[in-house]
Amino acid sequence: MNYLDIILNASNDKTYCLRDFQGEKVILYFYPRDNTSGCTIEAKDFTKYQSEFKEKGYKIIGVSRDTVKSHKNFILKQELNLLLLSDTEEKLVKVFDVLKEKMLYGKKHIGVVRSTFILNEEGSITKEYRKVSAKTHIQKLLNEL
Q1: For 109, how many CA atoms within 13 A lie in the half-sphere containing its CB?
Q2: Global confidence as pTM
Q3: Domain range holding 140?
Q4: Is residue 13 situated within a structural domain?
């Protein structure tokens, strides 16, 4: 299946596929988990700089394997202004190849590697950033775009 056609539930109680955003440039970012320290830093920075990204013509969309309920709590608790997609069935994370073996507290597990993809108006990937730092990535991305 084409990644543009994978339908996911969103934090605003709607469903979307990436094809819905054709005609817009999209910053699609994958993150491990709602309400964890790195993911909170990243989401708050995307919210903080959202108007600057919008001025450059970009819509920001976050994706994790968390539920819509978790996304809503995350948005409320952290005062975020982002559209978050719920990929509980791991469809999009697998297509974008961001699920990798990771070490956490000395144990191996499969998790989402923090990654960002830039999509053009046609939905094609024009740039990708893998294994990004939650603390520095957003500012670097803003400077590059």
Answers
A1: 8
A2: 0.93
A3: 3-7+24-144
A4: no
